Amino acid sequence: MQTSSKLKPPSQALPLPATPRLLTPVSGAAVDAHAVTFEWESAGARTYVLELARDASFDTVLCRLPAGKSTSVTVYDVFHKTDTTYYWRVESLGAHGVPIKSETESFLASPYALVVATEERQRPGPARGSAGAVRSDATRRPAPRLSEETQHSRLLAPDQRPTPSQEEATMTPHRTGATSMREALTAVILMIVSFILTLAYLFSAAVGI
Q: Most exposed among 9, 30, 119, 179, judged by the fewest C-beta atoms under 10 Å?
């Protein structure tokens, strides 16, 4: 009696995802410590996990953040120790469930990175496609207003600029005219007061008669 054996189809190997390539931040770049965006290239994985650590060997892991199929994650208020270098990498998980880790990159969490980047974008230069953030004008102090004489003096060559004595001589007529006007006004007031006092005296004398 012969028995027939059923042949089982060979098991199909599950595809492995590629190793994720990290895009930003890389090479110790300074980033705003309050909000850091991590980006990497798609590796064809079912899900990704972002790992953050204090050391390159990941002995002190800050957190592991599942990202789903997204290739970008923004982390808020995690890096409380500013001016410190942190490290990150990404795990890609496929159908087989075995994680494939990317290379490790570093960045500097700095509280001043956003301000510096904003000032760089505000400097005059060739037009760019993306507009940067604009700082508030409330902290800017208005420039002092210069007189016409001062502006004219700055436009002259050094040898043509008036000396301090010349500037004082130029301002003397204005001061003299103002003094003369005050003296004339004082004299008029004194004359009016004297006239009123004279009238009062005559009136009182007439009433007494």
A: 9
Instruction: DSSP letter for 104, please.
Output: -
* Section 150-173 average pLDDT: 53
For residue 40, which of 32, 30, 31, 51 has the smallest C-alpha distance? Answer: 51
Residue 163 lies in a domain: no
State the pLDDT at residue 6. Answer: 54
Band the pLDDT of 143: cuts 50, 70, 90.
Answer: very low
- In the chain the first and final C-alpha atoms are separated, in Å, by 171
Residue 186 neighbours by CB distance under 10 Å: 10
User: Greatest CA separation found in the chain?
Assistant: 171
Q: Looking at the predicted structure, is the pLDDT value of residue 54 above 90? A: yes
Domain containing 193: what range?
172-209
CA 59 to chain centroid: 35
The Cα–Cα gap between 190 and 187 comes to 5
With a pLDDT cut of 70, the percent of the chain lying above it is 60
The full 3-state SS of 58-73, as one line of letters, equals CCCEEEEEEEECCCEE
Residue 85 domain-assigned (yes or no): yes
Q: Is residue 72 part of a domain?
A: yes
Domain with 35 in it: what CATH number?
2.60.40.10
96: number of Cβ within 10 Å: 13
